[in-house]
Amino acid sequence: YMCHPQPCDRYIHGTVVEYYCYPGYSLANDYKYITCQYGQWFPQMQLYCIKD
């Protein structure tokens, strides 16, 4: 399944969010943290989980 982060305009600049998957799934890439920078999430990518 894919996660689409909400716009970060309600978050303080520098806020860090950690993504994780339900048991039996793993993130499909190495990024599990995204940071709100100037109203945008960085890195800008779609995060998704794949079945183990």
Automatic annotation (TrEMBL):
Pfam family of the protein (one): Sushi
Domain of life: Eukaryota
Keywords: Disulfide bond, Sushi
Sequence ranges assigned to domain Sushi in this UniProt record: 1-51
Family annotation (PROSITE patterns): SUSHI (PS50923)
Protein name: Sushi domain-containing protein
Organism per entry: Cirrhinus mrigala (Mrigala)
Lineage: Eukaryota, Metazoa, Chordata, Craniata, Vertebrata
